[in-house]
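Continued from yesterday's entry.
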Amino acid sequence: MTQPATPPRPLRVLICDDNDTLRAALADVVRAQGDLTLVGSAADADEAIALAGAHRPHVVVLDVRFPGGGPYTAQQIVRSVSGVRIVAFSAYGDQGPRNEMAAAGVAGYLVKGISNAQLLAEIRTLGAQALASPAFTTEGVDPVDQPLERIHPQQAVELPHPQPRQFWSDASP
């Protein structure tokens, strides 16, 4: 399998799992990577949605059977963070949860027990997709430095000519 190219800036990652031990282990794995930045870890839906809105992660690793609902959490994060990619992380590989999470906007699905290398490869692959999305491509770019959009003459709007302003009075002193 080909490794994705290293992104030009660190990918922001949010970890969401109700198991404290697993959440801490995943956080350590992400922190150990120079091209990834852990922006938070959440134990329930409300916390995950709030952290996603505050930190705009590129990738969210989300437990399927998450308190508050994995599919609900995924939908809310996708709605609030344009361009984000979510990888569902589950102890179960059956098709029902996969379909439910896909319908909620999840971009990937991994079964717990995979290697750290497989998890990191999925985070990087989805992160590259997120970085290519319009929501993240202009991030950190000053709009003043952007080229002006060219307008086709047929799209131009004719503005009314301004009336001359009179700065003196016709009255004689």
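--- second protein ---
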Amino acid sequence: MGKRLLLAGGGHGHVYVLKRLINEKMKDIEITLVSDSQTHLYSGMIAGYLEDIYDETKVTHHLKTLCHKAGVTFIEDHITKVDHHKKIVTGRHGDYPYDFLGMDLGSAGRQNPNFSSHLIHYVKPAKQIIKLKEKVSKHHYPTIAIVGGGASGMEIAFALRQTSPSSKILLFNREEKAITNFNIHSQTTALQQLGKRKIQYYAKTSIDKIEEDTLYTDKGSFTANLIICALGVTGVEVEFKGFRTDQNNFIQANSQLFIADQALALGDMIYIDKFPFITKAGVYAVHASPIYYHNLMNLVQSHNHFRHFDPPKDYLAILNTGGRTAILNHRNISHYGRIPFEIKNFIDQNFMQRKFKWRKETII
């Protein structure tokens, strides 16, 4: 029996691994990927998908197909426990032993126990976006409330304004500033565009509770027919043993992306003490993927040649504002219009369609 490498989760990083393995198959290694979904929805294109710029085929990778091409066994199961002491991953339908482990489980949407209504729709995990699109495609909602004024909530608001032009859209942010990781010029432009699109924006507004169709805030009560919650992220609901986790169930990793002996991870599910500036953004998973793949392959082949992840402290960020327009933000640079959208579209399409040729240096 060959060595067993188990890939837990189907995020950005493992899509990268599978694409590399299509042309770089490893000998004497049994590789299995366990994911609760056969598809991976690319988060960078969610707003365009909601707006009908892209259909589902353009924003998803089919994990089962990629596994087949890469010679990897695909198992559809929801992971509930990872015990590194016993080297077993447990799902709802079985146990999966391993010799080496790679994890890319992402994050879970933060929820508020005071929000209790059948009208609430959370945006995490990503496959919830597909259900949200089905809702707004089939039904008209006179008033839509979006709770969470970060980039995710704002992009959803702009997208829904395009698909629901007659709906009243409310966007609530408990913070004073919107999209705080953007510079002041981009923040100002975003607020101006919300006004032009007649999206009602409520800054510094705390929502105490939600019951039925009513949102109770420190500025009064509001009613809505659909309530979308984008409250940020927390760790996935998985029991981890043999790893160091924080209070939110994120796993500590070093700069080589190791989380324990014989185990690596990347993406939202980890934190690196050396890099406190890293946010839970897909761009970091994309940047980390080549390092993760290199170190994982060298680990299973017993090569002691590992690379360090050096994340960018600032990066090009583009906020989709609907109607094939966007705000480009980088350091002190800010630009709004169609060109930023075309740049974003090019980057996203390239990520989705990217293929790899054999590169020998990968396994040195």
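The longest helix spans residues 282-300. The first strand starts at residue 3 and ends at 8. Will compare against the first tomorrow.
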